[in-house]
Amino acid sequence: MKNLTAAIVTLGCRLNQADSALLTGRLRRMNIDPIPYTPAGADLILINSCAVTATAARKSRQTARQFRLRHPDSILILTGCAADVDRPAVDAIDGIDLILTNEEKKQLEPKLRELLLRRGRTLLQTPYQPESHALEPNVFAEHVLSEFPYKSRANLKVQEGCNNFCSYCIVPFARGRERSRDFQETMDDFKRLLDAGFREIALTGINICAYSCEGRRLPDLLEKLISVEGEFRLRLGSTEPGEILLRVIELMADANGKICEFLHPSLQHGSDTILKAMNRHYLTGMYREFVDRAREKVPHIHIGTDLIIGFPGETDELFEESFAFVKSIGFSNMHLFPFSPREGTRAARMTPRVHGDQVEKRIARLHCLAEEMSTAYRSSLIGTTQTVIPEECTGDSGTGWTGTYIRTRVRRNGLKPGELIQTTILGLDHSGILFGD
How far is the C-alpha of 344 from the C-alpha of 170, rounded, in Å? Predict the structure, then answer.
């Protein structure tokens, strides 16, 4: 009998991408063949949803409805954050065959097996057997290894959940409290990804600085990972300023490129007044101290951030204060988001609201500033030696990403996708891409 096929459609963050890789491993274990999604569809279509904003939640529901109409004969599964925090709205969608919360992703196999048995289909199963040992509180195991069959870079899930409860954020309700992945299983998954040929692996979680297993924190995990033999580099996902991140900076400075010179600690706002209203766990002075230390230890480090514009109570004066702080930091890149009230969070009830026209004007100013800062950072890399992993190669050149996460074109014969190469940066073209030789 021909194997069933499954297409996973991933919406949202890198952690969802890492979860989809674990779901792929579970499907493969059931003798179901993962395939990329195309208009032709698949026997199973699994939507890994996002609900971090009301817009993202609406998109997840729209995707489910559209796929049900396009692929009436496919088994349709919805999982992810929308299944946790928007369950009544998801339950109201006709034609979803199976709904799994984030925690129930681990139960995909028995739940899907039961569904298929009702439809007359029996599947094989060869379970992954991790070393058996008791897990301490707030430590989890996935009991499966990641698979990225169509990717050139891999995401390794190491952490889950959040304890911060920022006033605008639904994530703690969607993902639960902070938990860390079992250390040995993390090492097993990492080595499996290396064996599969990945040369860049990003550590992912809601806040990987919260990693804690068997007395090991994030810097301890990183030390073990970079001690594994082979040519590779680690990229760090979502982080928060603090003592742990300062320890990571020390390790990055001595890692000889095995830890990418890149961090993206979310600022969210450059005014202490708004940071307090957001219930962020730092103020601008602490954030600046972290950036100064990072640049002292790793001179060409890429520091990016996220900003929310139009948070309730953001007056013209507070916006100008935030703008001045952001400009003084000189970020390498910024992701800008208009405030989106998320039902179920404290900020959804906060006033006064900022008018939409004001938000658009503020975002436009910040976009211009972001472009200036990004160009300045890219230009600062001219003359430096960077390690690039080409993803697209032609006869005499290849384009990929530096460890500092800048798109770069290298002129060199015989380049192969996925290999680590060193190049001296010669300049910056009109589209913002670095070039080296």
Answer: 7
Instruction: Count CA atoms within 13 Å of residue 144 on its CB side.
Output: 23
- The structure's pTM equals 0.93
CA distance to 108, 218, 319, per residue, from 183 (Å) = 23, 11, 43
Are the C-beta atoms of 6 and 131 separated by less than 8 Å?
no
**Cβ neighbours of residue 90 closer than 8 Å, sequence gap 6 or more:** 60, 61, 64, 78, 82, 83, 96, 99
Q: In which residue are the tokens 């969607």 written?
A: 174
Band (pLDDT 50/70/90 cuts) for residue 124 is: low
C-beta of residue 248 within 8 angstroms of C-beta of residue 301: no
The CA distance from 304 to 334, in Å, is: 6
More confident residue, 35 or 149: 35
Instruction: Note the pLDDT tens digit of each residue in 206-261.
Output: 999 999 999 999 999 999 999 999 999 999 998 998 899 999 999 999 999 999 99
The Cα 249–Cα 272 span in angstroms is: 25
Token pair for residue 11?
């919406």
Query: Is it true that the peptide bond before 149 is cis, omega within 30 degrees of 0?
Result: no
**C-alpha distance from residue 165 to each of 55, 153, 236, 280 (Å):** 20, 31, 22, 8
